[in-house]
Structures are given as C-alpha cells and as structure tokens.
Design brief:
Distance between the termini: 15 Å
Strand order of the largest sheet: 3-4-5
Oligomer: single chain
Strand content: 5-15%
Number of helices: 14
Order of helices and strands: EEHHHEEEHHHHHHHHHHH
C-alpha cells in the first residue's frame, strides 16, 4: 500500500508515491503478537483445563484481547501527532486520576495482595499500563515546550518530575514496583535525550536510584525477593520456588528446546507460566535459539523505533522524535526486565513481556505504541517526499517545525 503525494508548488505536476507504512516494524510487531498467541495457548492449557474445565479458556480470552488491541492500535494510528502533542498533559492527568480511583475502596480490585485493576464488566482496566505511554507523550511535549529551561535551568527538568513522582507514588501504593521502575527509567532517559545538563541529571538519577533501593530495604517482601533472587536454591520450595522452576525450564530447553507443546514446567510447576514467566516456557520449548530469536526481535523493534525518531528529528519534528525514542526505551526496558527476571538476572517483578504475555491491558497499550510509531513514520515520509529534490528555503514555525507543506501543519493533515 502506498500513499500518493502531489506537489503543491506551482508548475509541479509530477505525482510521487510514498510508502505508507514501515512494513518491517509492522511485520515484527504482528509476528510477536502471533507468536505470543501460540505460546500463551501452549503455556495455559493445563491450568485452564483444571480451573475452568476448558483447555482453551485463556486462549479464547487472549484472542479477544488481541482483537481489542488491534482495534485500539487502528484508532491510535488515525490520531494525528499534533493531537497527541496537544493532549499529552491532559492524558497524563487523566491517568493520574484513574490511578487514584484504583486505590479508592470499593472501586479497585485486589488480586494476590495487589490493587491494580478497575472492573469493567468482563474486562479489568489496569491504568498503570496506560500511564507509561501517557508519561512518554507528556514528557515529550514538555521537552518541546521548555527546551531551553530543560537544558539550562535546574527547575526546567525538576518540574515534570513532580507529576511523574505523583504517578509513581500512586503506582507504588498498589503496589507495583516493576512498573514504577520502568516508567521512571524511561522518563529519565527521555530527559537525558532532551539535553538536560549532565551534573543536575546525575544528581537526580542518584536521588531516584537511592529512593528505589530504599524502598527495597524498607519493604520486607521486596527484600525477600532480592534474597531469593541471589540464591533461589537456598529455599527452592518456598521463596525461591518461582525462579528455581524457571531455571529448570531453561535447563531442560538446552540449545533447541523440547518442542512446541512438549514443555513440562508449565504443567503446574511454574507459576504464572502464561503471564510473567512466558519466556521460561519459550526457553524450554524452543531452547537457547528461541530465546536469542526473541531477543533479536525486540532489538529490531527498538532499532526501528529509534530510526523513526532520528528521521523525525532530521525533519525538525522534535515531539515526534521524543515520542518514538521514549517508546523504544520503554519497550526495550520492559522486555529486558521481564527476560532478566526469567533467567535470574534480576529480582522477580510482575512485568509482562510486551506483545506476548497474557493480559489485555499490556496488549492494548503495546499495539497503541506501535500504531503511534507507524503514524510518525508515515508523516515523516510525506515530509521527506515534499522536501525532496525540489527543496527550497522554508519558513520556521513554532517549536522548530518546518512548514514543508503549504496550508498548515502536515502533522494535522497527514
């Protein structure tokens, strides 16, 4: 599929054809979604048959979640980047409001001691998943509006951290330490890319790091997770049970795995096999080769996102560039944490594997993120086509954007 772009300059009748989508990125994301459906089915059949008398119970729900996620992605793709920029602050404030509702007695739903969901009939809304995306959009817009203050004044990059800190505190109260850490790391990375002064940034990074470490030491259950992570075999049937079973799964997989559907650990040995520890099932059934292929897929997806951000920056569209870079940081960090937990490199955290793990909220937000990347790429290609070989002096509009197409912002019309 291609999109035709006609020159608006007088005397130009040549019709150019611009690729409508970044097909490698789209194929990679769809491939991860399809592989995730296969692995969720493989990992959940035993437990679904026992708890629900239907081996396809989780598979059917995952298919429905995929349908919702793809619909949400299509809707996000049809929203102009200008509109995302204008709505960034309001979206983030809405996310903070819903985080407050989660903690309101009688509204939030508690599962295994964590209050993270709002029941909406057959679905459960997990606001913290959406807040990660809204935080990226909000900070990207802030970096564009206050570029000089961020680069030259301490208050310039402290101010956005106040709102981010409020959201982080609300997520910690659920409690959800993993999501908090990923969101803060993504925002800090965006501030660094936004040109913040190195010394104040290092100080803020140190404060955030010390705060997160203090939360671990001050919370008995988090401290217990760290201890069991350091030596899961010290108590393999209690505190170290989940990690020890995950390591057994990787050990059984060896190089090429035992084959799709032939894994043993998913059969009541490995808790959360179809959610947080899906990578362990992949390691057992596809071996080291399967895990390396999975890592390569996420590396490729993040590389494409950074490439889209670099091209948007070259087209002098800083908001789009920051959003693309923020999405790359977020997806890369979350995949790294999930895989690190599965192989025993990081303490256990309740983070899903993007695009693969069972869970409608994670799938919806992941598809929305990819859709936004595709929208940024589409409009950047159109701008590059308009400015191609017939480039001529252009006027500079607000926020450093070039007016490459006559009659208003190309982001709003693309």
């Amino acid at each position: 599929m291609t999109a035709a772009v006609r020159s608006t300059h007088p005397g130009q009748r040549r019709r150019e054809r611009v690729p409508a989508l970044d097909y490698p990125l789209l194929v990679c994301a769809l491939g991860l979604l399809a592989f995730g459906l296969i692995m969720v089915s493989s990992a959940s059949m035993s437990i679904a048959e026992k708890c629900c008398n239907d081996p396809f119970y989780y598979t059917i729900r995952h298919v429905i979640a995929l349908g919702l996620a793809l619909t949400a992605g299509l809707l996000a793709f049809n929203v102009s980047v200008d509109r995302w920029e204008r709505s960034g602050t309001w979206l983030f404030l809405l996310g903070v409001l819903v985080l407050i509702l989660v903690l309101t007695p009688g509204i939030g739903r508690t599962v295994n001691g964590a209050t993270r969901w709002i029941p909406l009939g057959p679905l459960n809304l997990q606001p913290s998943e959406f807040v990660k995306l809204f935080a990226i959009v909000y900070v990207a817009g802030y970096l564009v509006r206050h570029a000089d203050a961020v680069a030259n004044r301490l208050s310039g990059f402290i101010r956005p951290m106040i709102l981010i800190g409020i959201a982080a505190a609300l997520i910690l109260m659920q409690p959800d330490f993993g999501t908090t850490a990923v969101m803060l790391a993504t925002v800090m990375g965006l501030l660094f890319l936004g040109g913040v002064s190195l010394l104040p940034f290092a100080f803020l990074l140190g404060v955030v790091g010390v705060g997160l470490v203090a939360l671990v030491f001050l919370s008995p259950y988090r401290m217990q997770r760290v201890i069991s992570f350091l030596d899961p075999w010290q108590d393999p049937f209690n505190t170290g049970y989940q990690l020890s079973q995950a390591l057994i799964a990787f050990g059984r997989g060896e190089w090429l795995g035992v084959g799709l559907g032939n894994g043993i650990q998913k059969q009541f040995f490995l808790p959360e096999a179809h959610t947080d520890f899906l990578a362990s099932v992949i390691g057992e059934e596809f071996g080291l080769v399967g895990i390396l292929a999975l890592i390569a897929a996420f590396a490729f997806l993040c590389w494409r996102a950074f490439s889209i951000g670099a091209r948007a920056e070259a087209a002098e569209q800083p908001f789009a560039a920051y959003v693309a870079q923020g999405i790359a940081l977020w997806l890369g960090l979350q995949a790294f944490v999930n895989l690190g937990v599965n192989v025993g490199f990081l303490p256990t955290k309740g983070l899903t594997l993007p695009f693969l793990s069972y869970g409608s909220n994670s799938l919806i937000v992941g598809c929305m993120a990819v859709a936004i990347l595709l929208r940024i790429d589409l409009t950047t290609r159109q701008l590059e086509s308009d400015a191609g070989p017939r480039r001529r002096p252009t006027t500079t509009t607000s926020r450093g954007a070039k007016s490459g197409v006559e009659g208003g912002s190309p982001w709003a019309r693309a």
